[in-house]
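In the design runs reported in the main text, the only information available to the sequence generator was the tokenized backbone. The following block is the verbatim input for one such run; it is reproduced so that readers can re-run the procedure and compare outputs position by position.
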């Protein structure tokens, strides 16, 4: 747990200062974050994290998908007793990235007037508009018992050098 936490902190402090990071590394760090949360919640939560497609040779803005995953734990798992679940699905097709995060919600949610106003979602929406103005789509669905977020992005693909292409061929 300590090694996982130190890896996350090192990533956030030293690797996220660039405008873009490797998608493969970003997703790996999200997996590390989910592992730490699994330790925290033990058997009180059912977590499914699936990844399909090729993450290699693509870049994404750092920590862009973390707020969606954090919110699933913060507003879904931490406020709920009983059957708690979170589903995280990442799929990549060519340069198209899709993230879906869904989580259960508490039966008796905290009243809106007593909680801050979803600043994380507002900030990530602003980042998307600045960094991916015409190539991102964000859908947020807040139902009675489920919260769902779908993010679609067109990613940049890193061009391989001729030597790398020969090695992979």
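Verbatim output:
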């Amino acid at each position: 747990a300590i090694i996982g936490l130190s890896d996350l902190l090192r990533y956030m402090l030293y690797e996220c200062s660039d405008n873009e990071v490797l998608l493969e590394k970003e997703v790996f760090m999200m997996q590390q974050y989910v592992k730490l949360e699994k330790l925290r919640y033990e058997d009180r939560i059912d977590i499914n994290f699936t990844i399909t497609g090729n993450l290699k040779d693509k870049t994404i803005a750092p920590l862009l998908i973390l707020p969606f995953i954090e919110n699933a734990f913060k507003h879904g798992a931490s406020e709920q007793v009983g059957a708690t679940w979170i589903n995280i699905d990442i799929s990549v097709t060519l340069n198209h990235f899709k993230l879906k995060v869904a989580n259960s919600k508490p039966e008796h949610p905290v009243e809106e007037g007593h909680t801050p106003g979803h600043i994380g979602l507002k900030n990530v929406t602003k980042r998307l508009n600045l960094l991916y103005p015409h190539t991102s789509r964000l859908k947020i669905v807040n139902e009675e018992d489920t919260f769902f977020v779908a993010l679609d992005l067109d990613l940049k693909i890193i061009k391989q050098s001729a030597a790398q292409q020969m090695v992979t061929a």
